Amino acid sequence: MEDLNERLVSLKEGLEGTIDAKIEQSVEKNMGSDYKNQLKGEVNEEILKHGKIVEDLNSRIDSLELEKQKSLDNAPPKNFSANLKEALAESPSFKSFMNGDSAKATLSLKAIMTTAANASGDTVPADRLNGFYFDPTRTTRVRDLLTTISTDSNTIRYIQETSYTNGAAARVEASAYGESEFKLDPVDAPVRSIGSQLTMTKEMFNDVPALSGYISTRIPAKVMNVEDNQLLFGAGTGANLQGLMTAGGGAAFDESSSAAFYQFFGAAASAYTNEFDVLIAAKNQAQIAEYLPTAVMVNPTDYNKMFLNKDANANYVVFVNGVLTILGTPIYPSTAVTADKFIIGDFGAGATLAMREDMEISFSEQHSDNFVKDLVTVKATERIALPIHNPNAFVHGVFSTAIASMNA
Fold it and tell me: Where are the beta strands (DSSP E) in 104-180?
């Protein structure tokens, strides 16, 4: 670069010298207009010739600057040590200190510290993993065990037998048959709405890869968690569904003194009463009501505790190759069920999940002041009803209190 600059200076001085010499000839000879025109032509020719040389040199200079910039762009980032070394070499204060001309040196590290996040090693740019990472969603849901139908109404009405007196009997000839009585009542299961929403900037929604897909997956999963809670524990009042494990839903585990397994285990066996015993008693309760349970749902903690149960000789009592069943009925672990609680039942015969509006995901810029603020609102909603037409098909309870009732 310095050689090119020197050459440009030399060309400039040469051109100026040529023009001055031609002017001196014109003055000395005092020539006429013809010679002046000739002189003017020679000067213009020299200017054009030197102009082409200058243009070529400028082009070479631009090319060199571009190559230098590319080299800088592609250069690996300097670490803190390299930046510090460079700053020390260029610091007049430090040079003066090293030469003994000054008793101190001051060096600003602000610019250096912003060039590297790690002062002890190289600044390595982070590799980015594609996608979004979050804990898995629930694998077993209540709806998976229920019969599902669609509806166009906001209420599901069904006729439920609330009492029955069986007068059927063997009849003596010429006598009257026994009279039976039963009561049928209409019951309504209202459709309820479950949903959630969130708002984000339009820039984030458009600029972050796969964000829309992540949201479209994640929000419905959270809504379905609430659905599980409503199907099991809904209070049946206000905006809540009637749940299977609350009053008015399925049958509670019988812990009364008239229960078939009340104080079934003597004092000597009480220490070994466990969750399996409770589920067998609960299954029996459903079977007495003429139902054949199709599934059991328990919390994962209770599910895994059942694998750890041991007999008096410290031997495990479960040998089922990792799949728990209770007399042929599969047991499903699910976080939808609260720890220490359980539900067993004939899910297909006991209740029906009615879908007024299946899960719907919508995106809008029109909510509130979204339009003027470039915001997007994402909403996930569903409308469902749960008619529990055969509540005795389900038996639910609490393991700890059920075990206590079964021990003497």
Answer: 147-150, 155-165
